[in-house]
């Protein structure tokens, strides 16, 4: 099953979104029960959601390491 999880499970108190994947607690908990269409809809929204998170996690994330490798 496709998942946006990058193993950085830290929630932003202001937005309620995970710093790593951009999902809410409810979406994370219900992920395995969602249909493929529901998961795709959420995943399409994640890049925009991640841009709304102001405070970044203190540790380097897999996402940032991968971005550095591509540069």
Q: How would you briefly describe this protein structure?
A:
This protein is mostly helical. The chain contains three helices and no strands.
- Number of continuous helical runs: 3
Distance between the termini: 29 Å
For the secondary structure, the number of strands is 0
> Largest sheet, described in full?
none
Structural class from helices and strands?
mainly alpha
List the uncertain runs: none
Portion in helices: 40-55%
Percentage of β-strand residues = under 5%
Number of domains: 1
- Shape designation: globular
Give an overview in words.
With 71 residues, this protein is mostly helical. The protein has one domain. Helix content is 44%, strand content 0%. The chain contains 3 helices and no strands. It has helices at residues 25-30, 36-51, 62-70. The chain is globular and about 35 Å long. The chain starts with 24 loop residues before the first helix and ends with a helix.
């Amino acid at each position: 099953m496709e998942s946006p999880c990058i193993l950085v499970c830290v929630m932003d108190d202001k937005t309620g979104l995970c710093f790593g994947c951009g999902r809410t607690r409810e979406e994370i908990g219900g992920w395995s029960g969602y249909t493929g269409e529901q998961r795709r809809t959420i995943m399409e929204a994640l890049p925009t959601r991640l841009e709304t998170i102001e405070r970044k996690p203190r540790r380097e994330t897999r996402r940032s390491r991968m971005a550095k490798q591509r540069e």
